[in-house]
């Protein structure tokens, strides 16, 4: 048996067991099956496990707490157990190893990183000396759809913590994340008047035509230099080609780097009105995840992680990401470091993979963060 407690092959076998339990967000039975396996891994550790019952058709959340250090603000580790891949996807993308790559649904986003955090905690529990701070690990079941049932729990735990570590996958060759765009979602409802498109078009008011005007207004808000993106990703409308459309609908995604951008643009989107007499426009929605802006505390946490990585023999760089995570919910009030999971590529794709060479250094980095944060 190897004397290395961070041997990649051993850790990868644990990741495999988590990957081989498929856990789409919309299958709470499968998410809970994985949660039960995760919980079982803490039974012989110096930790308590609380299961927060799922609701609204989603799975349970797990909160594990170290037996030490719970009386003062400590370390919160955020992970999610759900994946975007539908049931049966593992037949298309079975767990397999090819050279330095291991494949499987959710292996990169983010079962690999979640397992690293668990393994590092397990090693901490075997040490003779307890670290300065308590460690709470939160595994949620609905991150891939915006964390609707876990957000309140994440925010509550985040406010109690001194540091938040997020095990989302690394970026661009191992970079960690120190900032993310905020995410807003909107729905657009357009109501016109139907008529025969050939015989009496003058009697109608096209909802689709007006939706076209709305789309132009939304597209004009894009500003890549500022990092603002507004995307109309779903459009529906009308009934028949020979009928002036009575109704039209769109779904909109907005990404903004700062709260100032959100405060400026969200009201503009919600305030869009019809340019066409006789047609009504209603927009609902708002900010789903606040921007994760790099704070002074977050920057200091990154510098500490970078110094630990140097001690471990690798260089650590940070990056700003356009995608959101549960770290967006904690960063506004607690020092947060994201992208601490495995390196790899292909999140949400049919070739999702982690790089096996990243397993040991990333696990050791989490372990050292647990040991040294105070």
UniProtKB/TrEMBL annotation:
Keyword Metal-binding included in the entry's annotation: yes
SUPFAM superfamilies from the UniProt entry: Bacterial exopeptidase dimerisation domain (SSF55031), Zn-dependent exopeptidases (SSF53187)
Tree of life domain: Bacteria
Molecular function via GO: carboxypeptidase activity; metal ion binding
Keywords for this protein: Carboxypeptidase, Hydrolase, Metal-binding, Protease, Zinc
Cofactor: Zn(2+)
Family matches, as Pfam families: M20_dimer (PF07687), Peptidase_M20 (PF01546)
Peptidase M20 dimerisation domain mapped to chain residues: 178-269
Coiled coil ranges: none
Active site: residue positions: 82, 143 (proton acceptor)
Broad EC category: hydrolase
Keyword set includes Repeat: no
E.C. designation(s): 3.4.17.11
PANTHER family: ACETYLORNITHINE DEACETYLASE, BLL0789 PROTEIN
Name this polypeptide is given: Carboxypeptidase G2
Organism: Bradyrhizobium ivorense
